[in-house]
Amino acid sequence: MNKFKRYILSLLLVLSVILIWQITENIINTNRLANNETGLEAFIPSPITIVHAYIESGDLILNQSAYTFSRAMVGFCIGILSAILLVYIFSLMPLLRNITLPILFGVNSFPVVGLAPAIVLAFGQGSFSSIIFISALMCYFPTLITLDTAFNNIDQDVLDLMHVMKAPRWQIIRYIRLPHSLPYLFLTMRLAIPASIIGATMGEWLGSKNGLGQLITVALYQLKPSLLYASLFLIVAVSILGIAVTGLLERQFVKWKYLK
Q: How far, in Å, CA of 54 to CA of 59, rounded?
């Protein structure tokens, strides 16, 4: 099955789920009307209701999303670049890697959900820096662990050949370790994109005055599930878009991976 057919089947699956969702919601609403049940909006809104939320509150959602996605982008860049820098330093200083890496694994065992309130208290509730820090933290450790594994998972025969040729360490990194690690970098970037958005949203939940996290909190307390779901699906859509763009970049920079 070629890639185009897989995309078509995936699209048909998504459309089928949406159709079943809409039909189920219509049946539930019909039963509610038959039983004279009125009041609050259904807690699981139909797809049409969510579309209406985009139409009615589109400006609000877009304005708040600008805060979230800009913070997530900054956090993503900081998390990815700092992890790359540390892995590069580790490759130049193996002793430092052996000492530091177990400590970093221990720090990574702390749940981010538990660390987030402490980070907010340290940087200030709702501050720009606290939200970016949480977003960067969500990206940092997965990238660090993946790239460190890629940098050190090199065929020993290749390394022995480079040593016999008396290649300096920077050449081994430039011509062996770095090209070998590029596919892993793009893999972890695809994972880090939604993680950075989740981190930014989490930081906004904890007291920010703007952003999709704050909008989701307001929608929850005001019992507006259509606005809540509209915000969530926008996060999903932007994450998918970011993953797709990363895939296109990978095809440009890691062309040998796709050669048949």
A: 8
Low-confidence ranges of the chain (pLDDT < 50): 39-40
Question: What SS3 string covers the chain?
Answer: CCHHHHHHHHHHHHHHHHHHHHHHHHHHHHHHHHCCCCCCCCCCCCHHHHHHHHHHCHHHHHHHHHHHHHHHHHHHHHHHHHHHHHHHHHHHCHHHHHHHHHHHHHHHCCCHHHHHHHHHHHHCCCCHHHHHHHHHHHHHHHHHHHHHHHHHCCCHHHHHHHHHCCCCHHHHHHHHHHHHHHHHHHHHHHHHHHHHHHHHHHHHHCCCCCCHHHHHHHHHHCCCHHHHHHHHHHHHHHHHHHHHHHHHHHHHHCHHHHCC
For residues 170 and 152, the answer to whether their CB atoms sit within 8 Å is no
Tokens describing residue 200 = 């930014």
